[in-house]
Design a protein that fits this description.
GO molecular function: chitin binding
Strand content: 25-35%
Oligomer: single chain
InterPro entries: Chitin-bd_dom, Chitin-bd_dom_sf, Chitin_bind-dev_reg
Number of helices: 2
Number of strands: 21
Radius of gyration: 25 Å
Shape: elongated
Pfam family, one: CBM_14
Organism: Culex quinquefasciatus
Structural class: mainly beta
Order of helices and strands: HEEEEEEEEEEHEEEEEEEEEEE
Keywords: Chitin-binding, Disulfide bond, Glycoprotein, Repeat, Signal
Helix content: under 10%
Length: 281
């Protein structure tokens, strides 16, 4: 039997709704109610599916933003227990975190959830149940977001560097970290591929320096513009070299290391590939 509070809230949501329509449960991602003469009949999606109210059907979790008007074990933190945050009326609207999200949250009014988002530079504080300064929350966004299909390899832009991206599969990052586009190409979020700089809007991100220029990092390598088998060592912005790769190796601008030449390596003199064919799944 469902708690009485859920039935009351569901019945309120069904008022004025046509018979046979469905509304979110807002206490479970896979829960919904079917409206019959203003009354709510509870239902559940099959295992592994969430209810999508807009589509009026059960759907894959990555297609649904789950809005809950109750705290979850891993989402409530110190603010769990359905208690209002400072300055919130216990009988009025209440805000709840969304699992895996830093800026978006659920605003609940009379048991019904509404998707909201904090302003620029703010994150949702689950303790205060309100938007707060980032330094007071320190929420770390998931690299592989909830809204992508975890069963399909997906390229996700790096949050700060226009030339880098992540490969996500099964909900996790493939490899040791971000990958870098070849040559001077930048990652284009609109197409999901590396692209020419003039086709990419970096937004608030700072475009990286050209691949053959030293960055102010401690130590890294850059290619020689004259030879596929040579590279330079950069130390605190100063270029040292050139350095010759071992016999039979080329300096690969995908990994920025000397490698055996193959269809997965690329020399700066090749002009840069616009396809991410260095990954095979």
């Amino acid at each position: 039997m469902l708690p009485c509070v859920s039935l009351v809230k569901a019945q309120n949501s069904c008022v004025g709704r046509p018979d046979g329509s469905h509304v979110n449960d807002f206490t479970a991602c896979d829960g919904f109610f079917t409206c019959v003469r203003g009354m709510a009949v509870p239902g559940r999606c099959p295992a592994g599916f969430y209810f999508h109210e807009e589509k009026q059907k059960c759907d894959f979790p990555w297609n649904v933003v789950c809005l809950l008007c109750v705290d979850t074990e891993d989402g409530g933190g110190e603010g769990s227990g359905d208690e209002p945050g400072p300055g919130q009326n216990p009988d009025g609207p209440m805000s709840f975190p969304i699992q895996g999200e830093c800026q978006r949250y659920t605003l609940c009014i009379n048991g019904r959830g509404f998707l909201q988002e904090c302003g620029i530079g703010l994150q949702f504080n689950p303790v205060a149940r309100s938007c707060d300064l980032e330094e007071n929350v320190r929420c770390v966004p998931k690299i592989c977001p909830n809204h992508i299909n975890p069963n399909v390899a997906t390229f996700v832009p790096h949050p700060q560097d226009c030339a880098k991206y992540y490969v996500c599969l099964f909900g996790d990052v493939v490899g040791d970290g971000p990958q870098r586009c070849a040559g001077d190409l930048l990652f284009n979020p609109a197409t999901g591929w590396c692209d020419l700089p003039q086709n990419v809007d970096c937004g608030n991100k700072t475009p990286p320096p050209p691949i053959a220029e030293c960055r102010p990092d401690e130590v890294h390598y850059i290619p020689s513009m004259d030879s596929c088998s040579k590279h330079y060592i950069c130390f605190q912005g100063t270029k040292i070299g050139p350095v010759q790769c071992a016999t039979g190796l080329i300096f690969d601008i995908v990994t920025m290391t000397c490698q055996i030449e193959s269809d997965r390596t690329e020399c700066i003199l090749d002009g840069g590939s616009m396809l991410m064919d260095q990954f095979v799944f």
